[in-house]
Here is the input.
Amino acid sequence: MNPSSKTIDELVKKAQEARAHSYSPYSRFKVGAAIRTKSGKVYRGCNIENCSYGLTVCAERVAVYNAVSDGETDFEALAVFTEAKDLTPPCGACRQVLSEFSKDLVIILANPGKQKELKLSELLPMPFNKQSF
Ligand code: THU
Here is the structure.
């Protein structure tokens, strides 16, 4: 079942809140994410950069790892919030990490003026997965 519009609005708000904690002194691009489990718990994440640039972690992965480290792996939806003019879709690495847990995950992209809902399967139609080996 798809999340209700109230659930989606709440998740977007949590992603926006998480964005406030972004540690991004190098790119100055602040990203917030929030992931909701099927049981209704919400975990937040923000991007965390490092002076060794390649060690940067995206907000989406911080949110999902935060949930997994709390024992949660059954997800319904993930919201990503930035203040970029165009909506910010998850990078390829984050798509692959999310696909580990659910292919029918609802992804909500949001900025202060726009919002769009997609399925993870649209963003990553042919993932490398457990069935691949
Ligand atoms: N970033 C995310 O957190 N999520 C995305 O979906 C795209 C990129 C971060 C990584 C880096 O801190 C900054 O945005 C610029 O690439």
Observations:
- The CA atoms of residues 68 and 75 lie 10 Å apart.
